[in-house]
Structure formats: C-alpha cells, structure tokens
C-alpha cells in the first residue's frame, strides 16, 4: 500500500463530492491542503487531456515533487475520480478506479442521491477505504 | 514567429552578449566626471548603444553584410571578475524588497476577478520587476572563465590632462597588477585592442595642455588609437535638456537635473562621436579581423577530414587523464578556447552560422574531454544560436535542456549557471508561446535559495496564466507555493500579493482546505502588517471550518480572536459564519386570534386545532353582523395579506443555531432585528420588502443602541454551544405600538467581541410556508411582517397540578386557572376538551369541597339523593354567563383527570372567548392548551362470572387483580357494580382472602363474590334509573371499616364510566345480561396529596348466558330406591326467570335419547367462551388448578358405563308465558329404571320475546328475539336400596 494517497471525486464545476486520505502514512495536518492544491491544479491537465484520448484511465498525468496524480474520467466527463499517490502500482490503481467507479454508479442509482451532491454515505466510505487497502 | 531578435530574449541577448570594453582611468579622470554626479563609465554608458550604426562587415567567407545595432559594455578593470555571491544575493534581495513595497496592492481594491486578469495583456499583469530580477540573476555568473563573450574585447585607457607625465601614466594603467584575474590567469588573451583617451576638464582652462599630451600620445601609441575628450564645457552648471540621457543609469533617486549639469551640448556630441568612432572604427574591425584570423587557424587545424581523424585520435589518447571535476583548464592559446572565442565573436557580430558551426565543433571536443562546464556553456550558446537563427526549434530546446542538466550535474558550482541557462531557456519557450513548458522550466529553476525559488514560482504561475488555454488552477497553485516561500523569507508583502492573486482563482471554491489555507494566511499576514480590518475580513471566511481537525479549528479561532482583540473594538459582520444560522429552520410563533398557553401547544399542527375547534368558532361570514359594517372588508383584506399580532404580546421566533466546530463557542446577545413603522406604510410596501445589506447593518446597530426601543422590545439571550451542538434559540419581540413590525433578521455576538447579523431571507421562508398546505392562500404575504393592532384582552389559562406521569386509573381533581390581565371583560366563554375519557369538566361548586372525600357516600340519608344525568352531548362546555374574569382576579374551574388507559396521551383544551369591544377587528380569540400525559399501567382487573348452580338470579363471580407496577402498592378499596340492578356480596370475608392491606408490586389478588340480580318489575312510567340505589351495590374490600365507600353514581365517576363505555363501543342500553364494575383502589401514600384514588372500570362483563331466560332445575341429588320393587319416579322442579323487559314465552321440550357427548362439549365451550376478560396470568396457577379439579370431578361422573337410560315421565312439552322480570316454576318428572348416575340435560328451552313497546323497535332488531337453549347438566345419582 502506498504511504501517501489522497482520493477524491470531483463532480461538475470542479466541486469535490468525496474525499478520503487513504494512505498508510499517518495523516498530517498540513498535508491535507497540499493534497487538495495538487489535485485541484491537476484538473487543468485533465481538462486538456481528457479530450485527446478515449481511455478513461489517465495515469500519472501530473506530478508534484514525488507525488503523482492519476485520474479516471467517467463517461460524462463531469465526474473525475482523482488519486494522488506516490506508488507506481499502475494496475492496482486502475483496478481501484474501476471498482470505485462501480460503487459510484451504485450511489448514483440511489433515488435519494442528488447527482453532484456530496457523498455522505458511510457505506461508500468504508468500501472505498477497503478497496484502497486492497489495491493500493 | 516574428524576428527572433525582436523578441524578448532577442533583445536581452543583444543587450547582454555584446563586446566588453575594459576601462582603465586615473583618479583625476574620475574627479572630473564626478562634478556631473557621474562616474566615468556612467558618463560614457548612454552613448554605447547604437541603434543605427550601419557598419559594413564581412563574414569569414567574405560575405558582406551591414551591422545595424550594436552595443558596448563598459566595465572598470576591477569589476571584471566573477561577482561576489554574497554581495549579489544582497543586491537581489534589495530588488525584491523594493519591488514588494512598490507592488503592494491597495487594501481597498478587491482581488481582480479572474476574467479581468485573463483579459488583460501580459505586460499589464506581469510585474515589471521580474525583468530586473532576472537580469540580476544572470549577472551573478558573468565573467566566467569558460565563456568568452564576457571577456574584454578592447581596453579604454583614460588619463586626465591634469595628470603629470601622461604617457607613463598610460603605461602604468595597463600594468598587470591592475588587470583583472582573467587576464592574469591566462584564461584570456592579454593582447587586446587598446584605445587611449585624454580627458580634459574645460573648467580647468583651455585645452592647450591636452592637445600637447595628445600629440605626445599619438607619437607613442600610434595616431589612430588616441583621442582627446573635452568635458565640463558649461561653466555655470545649468544645462537644461529635454531628455537626460543619464536618467536611466541612476535609478535611486539622486536628482536628474544635476546629472551631467556641466556637460554642454557640444560635450555630449563629442562623447557620442568618440564612442561611435571607437566601436565602428576600432572594435568592430578589430573583431572582424580577429574572426578572420581565428577562423583560418581553426580551419587549418580542425576542419577537413584529416584534421578530424587526427583530432579524434588525439583526444582518445587523452582518455587516461584523471577526471577533473571542472574538466581540464584551457588557456587562451589552446585551440578549444580559440574556437570558443571565434564562436562568441561571431555571435556578437550576428554571424550566427559561423558561431553555430564553431560551437558544434567545440561541444564534441569538450564532451570527449569531459569538460562538463565548458560543454554546458557551449550547449547553452548553441541553443541561443539556434534560437536566433529561428530554425530547428527542437534543437534549441534540446541544447538548452542539455546545458541545464549538465550544469545541474556539476553541483552547487553550476547552479547559478543553470539558473541563467534556465532563464534563457524559458525565454526561448515563451517566445514560441510554449508557456506551459516554460512554467515547468521555471519550476525546475527554483532550487535551494527560497527567495529566488519564490520569484521563479511566481513567474511560473504567470506562465500558466498566459498559456492557451489558461491553466488557472495551476496559476493559483503556483502563486500559493510562491507565497509560502516569500513568507519564509519574510517578504510578507510579496506573500500577500501572490495570495491575493491566487484568491481570484480560488474565490468561491468548494475545496474547503484550499479556501481555508488561502484566507487564513492572508488574514494572518495582514494582521502581521497591522492591517487588522482586512485581516479580519479574510479570517471571517474560515471560521466555519468544521471539516478541519480540532487543533486546526482551535488555531483558527485563537488567531482570529487575537486579531480582533488587537484592534480593541467590536466588529459588525454581515456574514459571520459562526454559529451557522439555519434560515430555513426559522419558525415564527405569534398570537393573533389564536393564543397559546404553552410552548407545546404551538407545536401542534394548525390543522388539528382547526378541526378541533370547528364547532366552537363562528364562521367568518357570520362574524360580520351586517353588510353595512364599514371597516369589515378593509380589515379582512389586510388580514389576509399579513399576519396580525396584538400590541404588547410576544412574537416568538425559533432559530436554529449550529456550532460546526469541535470546540465550544459562546454566543451572547442573540436578538432579533426588527423594523417598526407606525401608521400606514401601505403606500410603499416594496421599500420594506427589499432591505439591502447596508440598511440591515444600520438596523442592527440601531436596535442595539435602543433608539427604537419604545416601539418594540426585542429580548436578548445568551447561549453556549458545545462541540457540534445545535440549539434552537427562542427569540422574542414585543411590539408596543400599533403599526407594522417586520422581523428582518437576527444578530448576535460571538465570544463577546464580534457581532454578526443575518437576514432572514423572506423568499426562502415564503417558499417554505407556501409548501405548507394550510397557508397556501396566504403565500403572497411576507411571513415576517406583522400588522400590529391595538392591544386586546388575552385570556391566560393554566391547569394546576397536572402530573406528567400517572398510573392508569388515577383519578384527580385539577383546577383550571383562568386569568385576564386586562380590565376588559370577556364574553361567551366556551371550552372543549379533546379526551373526555381522560379529562372531565366539573361544576364550579365542587371546587370548595374536598377531594376525594366529596365522593364518599353520605352516611346520613338526610341529603336527598339527586340522580345525575350523564350529559352525553357535552363536547363543548359553556361557562356560565355571569362569570367575569378581568383584572387581577383569577377564576378556578375544576377539571377531573382520570388516566383511563396506559400509554402516552396528548390532551388538548381550547377555550373560546369573545372580546367585549366591538370595534376591534378581532371578535373572538381562542386559548389553546396542550398537555402531555404519560400513563403507566397499574392494576389489571378482570372478572369472570358464571351462573350460580343452585340459585336463580344469582351468579358467582371472580375478580382477579394484579399489580402491574414496578414499585407502587395499592390498597384495593371497593368494588361496585354500576347501576342498581346488582347486589354484590363477598363469599368469604376479605381478611381471609387477602389479609394484607396493600397489593404490592407484582402481587395478584383474586376474590370470589356473589352477584344477585335485583331487578324488579316496575311500572312503565317509573324511570328505572330513578330507583334508589341499593346499598348492596358496593362492597368494601379493605380490611377494617371506618372508611367510607365511594359513591359511584356521583359526577366524575359516572361521566368517566360513560366515556369508558363509549370508548369501548358499548351502548348504554343493554344491562340485562352484563354487569359493569368499578374497582376503586387507593395508592399507599403519595407524599403530596395524601390519598390517590384509582378507579378501574370493567364494562359489559357477561353473566354467563346470553339469553334473557334463566332457568334452573332443582331436585334431589341422590335417591335411594329399591329397584326390585318398581322403577323410580323422581320429581324435579324447574324455575324459569325472564330477565328481559318484555314478556317472554318459553317452551320446554324434553327428549328421551341419551345426552350426547357433543352437547356436553358444546356446553364446555360455551363456558369457556364466557370467560371474556380473562387473561392468561402466570401468577394465577393455583386458581387454575382448582378449576381443573372441578372439571375432573364432572368428568369422572360421566363415565359412559354408568349412563343408563331414563325417561321423562311428565308432560313432554310445557309452554309458559313470563311477564318481564318475573319467575315461574314448572314441575318435571323422570323415571329411572336402574341405579346409576344420570345427567338430566336432554331437554331444550325455546324462548321468544314479544316486543313490548315501540320504543325498542330498533333495539329488538339488534337483540335476540328468540332462541333455543340446550339443557344444563344436572346430575342425579340413584342408589339401590338395601
């Protein structure tokens, strides 16, 4: 498992709807905003890159020092699953994204969930963290 | 792309990579120029740049071209050395600090909107000092030994005409110990072009001496290389110029007028001419010449196939040379260095092709030699040459990249070179609009030095901004990174500037950590600079940081309050985020015609009250007594539009305050902001509906001061919100004067220092209310706007002593207190109670009596018994007309409470009253009261009744009582049958059945009693209920006497019994076969009121048979007979009783077949079916055993072997007619032929009732009018005599 990893789901208009620090390293206070900054800045790259390829999984599109940003763009291009990581386990990250995407779709199917709103389901959170332990 | 030379980098290169002229002068020269406030170089500098020099040059291959732009760089010999790093650093820091002061943004100006930033041109947005900074950085690595373009091309020797022995001075000047180390070390060719100048100060007299020196020089150094320069021709020092050419060389403020004040126009012309002469006639030809010579040398040694092979061979042989980290040193006469000089000279003379070919040649050599620094330098120049040639972009980038990484590989020594190389590289990329790549190069340049990195990062951020499409988020991110570094180097102003730039990107972002970071730091930095107002403005944004960790929250709050304290004043903040006000939760409780006695009453749905009060309240249409009433229409119109409240009465607003933090906060002075306008403001209703923020602020402050305190009074409360707590604050406002009152918002004070206010958005509220079903018709109005009408009397009501928790059956008397503080009398008071089963309205006269003793039966029969009629239709109780409630007097009215059933119950009481004053728009008001009552189970009472086996009209009953409470003890006091038809008597005295006084928790009690029907036929005109109640309807169950029995026919008990029956769905009519019991018990002792009375009502206990005809067979139980003589005849008697109110005809038919088992079993099932009201009580096991024993007994008798036939010998069919409530007797006879035990039950009774009166027509349809009954079991044993 990667020592540092920050996972985020960003919906339309760049609004984060889910975030989780899934790294094994003890959580640092000052890192939280740094991770957000890096992921936020990486959206600029995603914006360009997403139109140039048909692949959903864009690996290592941006980096900051030793932290790499990988992104999984959903079909609508509105929702982006973003992972900031320092490991190089591309296959694991890809599987992680695919499974989380599936989870996200299940969340979307919930009639009480308003698309684009924050995902507050604790079940979703538990599942994502379990997947992170499994794949990252 | 346009001409590379005209690009930013192109200009930079034509400025920077130009021939250097080394200047050597005597102190007297310097003295002469100082008069103008300038050094010698400063004096010459403005005339060293030529934009249109137009010198013909030939390339090495004799291609002619003309050089248009040219520039010389003049340096003193002492300055031609690698600059001191520390000094350079200090200078760079100065540049930055100065820029920070200059560029510091105005506090008042908001950060630019990102659209504005994007729309502006690059030069407008890009801070101009970047250029200066970059230049300074580049200069830190000038005069490097591995590069030739900083090596002096010529030497300018200046001697003053005042100097003695000028010629020897010239010789002395070019002395080795004064020359720069570059020449002395042998890195540079000391044989350079020399130019000799005599400087003459015209203030010192005529230039005779100078010309003399000049001729002398011409003889010594050659005619061409000498020159006379006359300055300071203007004597008075007041030369005025349009444009001072020296203005740019002195930036730090010394006055421009003084610069060059002694230089006349002739002097300036002379300066200009001499410099042009120097460059065009001496330096350029010299360089051209040198290029030619060098090129020939290089061609001879290195060009051509043979030379290349030789070179390669030779280089390979050198491979065993140990690796020097700086590479081998090359002196000026080494071939490599000559190639380098050739390349650089060619570059300076814009012969880029030649330069490039030489650089290429050289780079392979250096690479083979592993002279990495030289290699990187050459690569760098190659990149620049490629750029200037504007071909092969890839190569340019490749070379720069190569040079950059090679420099970096050298370690710290190469770092500054790498920086310069990076800056040039960036410029190359920028010139080609590859801003994104440029940004990443900037990012790479930023190294150890934090201050330099900060500037680099900031420049990188601008690159992101200018790239297409703009990468705004990257821009913001890099600005923040730069800001952090600035802060690290104490450049707070720069830090604020960058963060403010970032703010334009991050404004309104939902990335909460980012937002907090930016605002918190800006706020802190502004506070550091002492600009508290702005600091607080930013800090306010981060207060609601519930997503942060606790320590961060504490940090934020602590810093915030520190800043606030430092200012020493309180702030009014429009959008204070702490605590979070849930505007949607705002609930307004006000009283118009509906008034509420308590908080809980307000929370009951309006719809409930509406339907509950329907039959009390007059319809709106009937309110108006006639159509001529003038103001009626007007007021109803108003009434519909806005809410009405009465002056002097409280309007309550419930607002939800939430603390999103994990640390407690204290909120004080929470109160409502209101606006009151007296009189009619209907002319401009729009004005009030849209209060903008400034007005709100004004209102909030005004309200605080209390300027309008007279017109309304707004209550203040203090709260303390724990971590994550949500509190509903109940705010109130009282309008004192008629007019219009609008509740605008709420204000509060956080931690006593920051006051916030929040506007209730009426649009949101409107939407919310409009969704509610009941208010749909009012949706157009503003729900926070009230029409204040003049004060009206208001009835206040309170039920005293109403407990919250009682045990089931508890019966109490409560008093309802009614008060009317005003002096206006109220009329037409009516009251309605929602649950008459629980609450009953008493008569006022019982108030004086003592409860419960007033319920006791009077021993003296002197008091005439007045039968009480149960008032069935008493849903609305009207108070007597003569009751006056006004002023200070209060009125107490009795209410009876009986906890009828366990569970939670809501009791509602509404009192309707009319206001005496007819002029008011409100004719009536209602007072609503609501109480919650929790009823716990106490005693379970059940009854079983079966008919007496040997007596007609008598029944045996069993009562089981179990105490269901957990701790309470009860004293079972009395059992009464309702009505006067039944007499109860105990089978055993109570003290044998249950010797203890109290029934403890969980304890059960069962007792047997006898029930006798004592209904007598009376005349039809007599009302059966007017019978004197029999004394025997009640039995005392308590041991000992002394205590009086309670009269169950008194008012509250009767009423409660009535409602109990009503609740159970039993009509009042049918009393014939059912009994109603009331068990009265007392609780052991309640510390407050002595004795509590509990009444338990068991209704409609069936007495065992459903038919109105009761009968009984009587006869001997055992007969001894000698069957040897004859058969035995046994006489039996049957008593029949008609318990109904009508005449009945009974037909008895006997049949001789043996009784079937079936009939017996059905009989058993009937008896079990009669056990209605029985519950399965585990504690009653012993009782069950006894009943089983009875069954066994009968079963034993019924062994089929013992059954032998008998025949009925009397008349086989009897028909009798029975009057109502009368009995008769019929004789029966059977014949038995053998001894044995017989069950004489093989007969049946057919009965039918004659409808006696028409008043019961409906009832008879419901009741059984006829039926057939199987015979009761009657066992007879016949024994053989003898």
TrEMBL record, chain A:
Transmembrane segments: none
Highest taxon in the source lineage: Eukaryota
Pfam families: Sedlin_N
Official protein name in the record: Trafficking protein particle complex subunit 2
Protein species of origin: Cinchona calisaya
Upper lineage: Eukaryota, Viridiplantae, Streptophyta, Embryophyta, Tracheophyta
From TrEMBL, chain B:
Record domain TPPC8 second Ig-like: where: 809-927
Source organism, top-level taxon: Eukaryota
Coiled coil location: none
Entry-linked InterPro entries: Ig_TPPC8_1st, Ig_TPPC8_2nd, Ig_TPPC8_C, TPR-like_helical_dom_sf, TRAPP_III_complex_Trs85
Domain TPPC8 first Ig-like: 607-756
Pfam families recorded: Ig_TPPC8_1st, Ig_TPPC8_2nd, Ig_TPPC8_C, TRAPPC-Trs85
TPPC8 C-terminal Ig-like domain mapped to chain residues: 1116-1244
UniProt name for this protein: Trafficking protein particle complex subunit 8
Origin species: Cinchona calisaya
Lineage per the UniProt record: Eukaryota, Viridiplantae, Streptophyta, Embryophyta, Tracheophyta
């Amino acid at each position: 498992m990667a020592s540092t990893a920050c996972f985020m789901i960003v919906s339309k208009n760049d609004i984060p709807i889910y975030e989780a620090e899934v790294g094994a390293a003890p959580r640092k206070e000052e890192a939280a905003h740094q991770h957000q900054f890096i992921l936020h800045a990486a959206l600029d790259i995603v914006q360009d890159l997403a139109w140039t390829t048909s692949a959903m999984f864009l690996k290592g599109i941006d980096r900051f020092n030793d932290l790499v940003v990988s992104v999984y763009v959903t079909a609508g291009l509105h929702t982006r699953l973003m992972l900031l990581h320092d490991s190089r386990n591309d296959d694991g990250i890809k599987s992680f994204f695919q499974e989380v995407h599936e989870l996200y779709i299940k969340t979307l199917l919930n009639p009480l969930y308003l698309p684009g709103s924050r995902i507050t389901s604790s079940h979703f959170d538990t599942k994502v963290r379990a997947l992170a332990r499994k794949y990252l | 792309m346009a001409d590379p030379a005209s690009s930013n980098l192109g200009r930079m290169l034509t400025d920077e990579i130009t021939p250097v002229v080394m200047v050597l002068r005597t102190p007297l020269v310097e003295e002469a120029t100082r008069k103008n406030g300038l050094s010698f170089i400063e004096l010459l500098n403005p005339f060293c740049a030529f934009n249109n020099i137009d010198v013909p040059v030939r390339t090495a291959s004799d291609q002619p071209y003309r050089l248009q732009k040219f520039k010389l760089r003049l340096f003193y010999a002492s300055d031609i050395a690698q600059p001191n790093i520390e000094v350079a650093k200090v200078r760079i820091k100065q540049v930055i600090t100065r820029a920070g002061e200059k560029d510091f943004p105005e506090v008042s100006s908001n950060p630019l909107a990102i659209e504005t930033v994007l729309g502006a041109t690059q030069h407008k947005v890009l801070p101009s000092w970047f250029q200066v900074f970059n230049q300074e950085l580049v200069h830190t690595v000038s005069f490097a030994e591995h590069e030739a373009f900083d090596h002096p091309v010529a030497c300018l020797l200046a001697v003053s005409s005042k100097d003695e022995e000028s010629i020897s001075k010239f010789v002395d000047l070019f002395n080795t110990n004064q020359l720069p180390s570059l020449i002395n070390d042998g890195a540079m060719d000391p044989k350079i072009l020399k130019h000799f100048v005599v400087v003459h100060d015209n203030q010192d007299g005529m230039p005779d001496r100078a010309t003399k020196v000049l001729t002398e020089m011409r003889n010594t150094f050659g005619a061409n290389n000498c020159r006379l320069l006359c300055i300071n021709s203007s004597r008075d020092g007041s030369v005025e110029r349009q444009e001072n050419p020296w203005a740019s060389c002195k930036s730090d403020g010394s006055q421009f007028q003084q610069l060059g004040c002694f230089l006349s126009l002739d002097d300036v012309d002379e300066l200009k001419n001499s410099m042009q002469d120097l460059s065009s006639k001496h330096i350029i030809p010299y360089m051209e010449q040198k290029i030619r010579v060098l090129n020939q040398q290089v061609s001879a040694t290195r060009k051509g196939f043979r030379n290349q092979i030789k070179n390669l061979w030779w280089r390979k042989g050198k491979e065993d040379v140990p690796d020097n980290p700086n590479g081998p040193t090359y002196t000026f006469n080494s071939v490599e260095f000559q190639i380098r000089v050739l390349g650089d000279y060619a570059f300076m003379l814009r012969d880029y092709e030649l330069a490039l070919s030489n650089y290429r040649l050289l780079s392979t050599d250096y690479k083979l030699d592993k002279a990495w620094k030289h290699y990187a330098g050459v690569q760098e120049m190659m990149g620049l040459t490629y750029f200037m040639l504007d071909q092969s972009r890839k190569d340019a980038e490749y070379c720069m990249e190569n040079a950059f990484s090679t420099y970096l590989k050298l370690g710290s020594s190469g770092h500054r070179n790498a920086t310069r190389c990076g800056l040039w590289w960036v410029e190359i990329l920028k010139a080609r609009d590859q801003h994104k790549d440029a940004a990443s190069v900037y990012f790479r340049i930023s190294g150890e030095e934090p201050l330099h990195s900060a500037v680099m990062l900031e420049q990188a951020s601008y690159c992101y901004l200018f790239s297409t499409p703009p990468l705004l988020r990257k821009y913001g991110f890099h600005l923040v990174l730069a800001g952090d570094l600035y802060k690290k180097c104490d450049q707070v102003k720069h830090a604020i500037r960058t963060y403010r730039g970032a703010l334009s990107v991050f404004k309104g972002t939902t990335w909460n950590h980012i937002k907090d970071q930016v605002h918190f730091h800006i706020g802190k930095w502004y506070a550091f600079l002492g600009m508290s107002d702005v600091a607080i403005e930013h800090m306010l944004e981060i207060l609601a940081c519930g997503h942060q960790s606790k320590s961060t929250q504490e940090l934020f709050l602590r810093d915030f309050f520190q800043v606030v304290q430092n200012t020493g004043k309180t702030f009014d903040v429009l959008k204070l985020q702490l605590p979070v006000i849930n505007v949607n939760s705002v609930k307004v409780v006000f009283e118009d015609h509906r008034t509420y006695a308590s908080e809980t009453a307000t929370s009951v749905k309006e719809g409930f009250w509406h339907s509950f009060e329907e039959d009390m309240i007059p319809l709106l249409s009937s309110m108006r007594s006639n159509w001529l009433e003038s103001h009626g229409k007007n007021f109803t119109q108003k009434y519909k539009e806005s809410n009405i409240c009465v002056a002097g009465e409280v309007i309550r607003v419930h607002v939800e305050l939430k603390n999103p933090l994990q640390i407690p906060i204290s909120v004080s002075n929470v109160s409502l902001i209101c606006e009151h306008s007296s009189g009619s403001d209907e002319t401009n209703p729009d004005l009030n509906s849209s209060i903008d923020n400034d007005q709100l602020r004004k209102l909030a402050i005004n309200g605080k001061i209390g300027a309008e305190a007279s017109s309304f009074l707004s209550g203040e409360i203090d709260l303390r919100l724990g971590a994550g707590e949500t509190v509903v604050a109940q705010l109130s406002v009282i309008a004192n004067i008629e007019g219009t009152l609008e509740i605008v918002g709420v204000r509060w004070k956080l931690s006593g220092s920051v006051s916030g206010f929040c506007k209730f958005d009426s649009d949101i509220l409107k939407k919310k209310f409009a969704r509610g079903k009941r208010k749909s018709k009012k949706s157009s109005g503003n729900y926070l706007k009230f029409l204040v009408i003049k004060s009206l009397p208001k009835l206040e009501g309170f039920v005293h002593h109403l407990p919250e928790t009682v045990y089931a059956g508890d019966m109490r008397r409560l008093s309802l207190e009614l008060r009317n503080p005003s002096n206006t009398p109220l009329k037409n008071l009516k009251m309605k109670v929602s649950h008459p089963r629980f609450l009953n309205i008493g008569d006022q006269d019982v108030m004086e009596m003592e409860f419960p003793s007033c319920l006791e039966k009077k021993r003296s029969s002197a008091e005439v018994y007045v039968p009480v009629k149960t008032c069935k239709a008493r849903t609305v109780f009207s108070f007597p007309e003569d009751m006056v409630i006004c002023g200070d007097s209060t009125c107490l009215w009795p209410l009876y409470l009986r906890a009828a059933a366990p569970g939670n119950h809501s009791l509602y009481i509404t009192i309707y009253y009319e206001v005496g004053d007819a002029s008011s728009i409100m004719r009536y008001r209602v007072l609503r009261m609501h109480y919650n009552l929790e009823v716990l189970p106490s005693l379970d009472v059940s009854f079983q009744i079966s008919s007496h086996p040997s007596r007609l009209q008598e029944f045996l009953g069993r009562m089981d009582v179990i105490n269901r409470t957990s701790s309470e003890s009860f004293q079972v006091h009395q059992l009464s049958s309702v009505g006067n038809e039944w007499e109860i008597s105990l089978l055993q005295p109570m003290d044998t059945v249950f010797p203890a006084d109290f029934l403890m928790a969980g304890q059960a009690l069962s007792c047997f009693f006898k029930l006798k029907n004592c209904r007598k036929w009376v005349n039809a005109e007599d009302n059966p209920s007017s019978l004197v109640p029999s004394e025997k309807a009640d039995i005392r169950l308590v041991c000992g006497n002394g205590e009086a029995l309670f009269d169950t026919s008194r008012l509250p008990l009767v009423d409660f019994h009535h409602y109990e029956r009503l609740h159970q769905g039993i009509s009042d009519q049918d009393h014939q076969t059912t009994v109603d019991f009331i068990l009265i018990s007392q609780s052991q002792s309640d510390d407050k009121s002595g004795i509590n009375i509990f009444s338990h009502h068991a209704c409609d206990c069936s007495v065992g048979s459903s038919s109105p005809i009761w009968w009984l067979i009587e006869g001997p139980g055992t007969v001894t007979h000698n069957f040897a003589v004859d058969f035995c005849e046994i006489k039996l008697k049957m008593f029949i009783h008609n318990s109904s109110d009508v005449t009945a005809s009974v037909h008895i038919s006997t049949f001789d077949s043996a009784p079937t088992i079936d009939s017996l079993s059905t009989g058993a099932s009937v008896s079990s079916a009669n056990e209605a009201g029985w519950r399965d009580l585990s504690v009653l096991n012993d009782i069950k055993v006894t009943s089983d024993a009875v069954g066994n007994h009968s079963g034993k008798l019924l062994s089929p072997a013992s059954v032998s036939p008998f025949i009925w010998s009397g008349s086989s069919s009897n028909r009798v007619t029975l009057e109502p409530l009368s009995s008769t007797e019929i004789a029966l006879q059977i014949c038995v032929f053998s001894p044995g035990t017989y069950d004489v039950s093989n007969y049946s009774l057919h009965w039918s009732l004659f409808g006696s009166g028409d008043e019961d027509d409906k009832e008879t349809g419901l009741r059984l009018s006829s039926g057939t009954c199987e015979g009761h079991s009657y066992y007879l044993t016949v024994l053989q005599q003898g």
